[in-house]
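thread: overnight batch results

M.L. [08:02]
morning all. the overnight job finished for the chain we discussed friday. pasting input first so we're all looking at the same thing
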Amino acid sequence: MVHARRHRANTSSHNAFFVASPDDGGCSSSSPPAVPNLLHRVWIGGCPAVSELVSMLAATLLLAPDQIVYHVLSTLPSECLVQRAALPPLNVSACWAGLGVRFHRINVSDASAPFVRDALGASMARTLHDAGRSFSRVILADFARVYALLEHGGYYTDSDVFVTSANLTRWRRCPFVMSGNTGDAYDVAAGERGLRAVEARDGVVGAGTSGLLNCGALVAAPRTPFGAAWLHEMRSPLRSGKPRYSGHGWGDVGMALNLCSHWPHTYAEHHPGSLLGTPALRIAPWTLPRCHAWSNSSAGLAAIRKLPQQHRACAATAAEWRAQLDRIAARDGTHALHFANRGSRSRAQQQTTLQWALDHAVAQAGGDGALTAGQRGCVGLAREWLGVSSSV
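M.L. [08:03]
and the structure it wrote out:
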């Protein structure tokens, strides 16, 4: 989630909660992991898009969770099929079955359900019951992710977040970790001729939103103080009886940015050790370094504080974009990439990114031969879907 407002990110002592590794965050390596090896997925709507399938597979292959739990609406079809002209449909439900996915079906009309009773409350359930309100499903997905981690703990990633390294599992030693609302100077500068000084700088650069944190990727132990406080904050707009944020209050973009970035950032500052953020889980760049006038200026790149978004300024081939992603993912400090603001990215870039994310995860997992039968079935389905899909 990215906004136009500029924010200069840094890792000064004022932001001591924003760390590059679990060791930097003081997470103990001598005790068992605090975070259960569970992967939570949230999809509020009809059958998922191909981007959700690829994101889920990347997390599954690299994190090797003991269980995958999908939090979905009670109205999700019992069988999800991808229709293809002159070809048999692709059965996404068979893929889920092959992975042993467990489903938690959400019905906001069922006041006795623990999620409705304990997470939403009666007032919030009534508000979200109106499916005609455009924000309802987005907010419901936010509640689902926070409640799932509060109750059970585990991993969560949005459908536009792709795990790139099994080293993400190291963060299980920490009580609660959020992805960064930042990129990295390397992602913009590394590999360009004459920029070794910039490469050595290894600076964090902002994605434009107030606050260093982003809720696109989360790693959490169950029943943490931050998780409980976060859920309480999410419910507070209706308890107050009036909008607490600019615009239209509940569902307003300002509120969503506050809950996903600014409020957690403020909480982390005032509760040391309760919440960490990391650039290891970060926003992916929008474009190639050569697409900018300042790309040949070491001084210009050294001064970067905000990720550039002018990807339409020049065309990048699929091979160039894949090479850029390979370079970024090869770094020890990259554990997941968040392709935020999908609408500002070209269709060709989105398609190439999904193909790359799937190929990269399979390769990191040891290749097709190292996968289970269920994993191979899902990977094959995703490859076929990407080959025929006109949208991502």
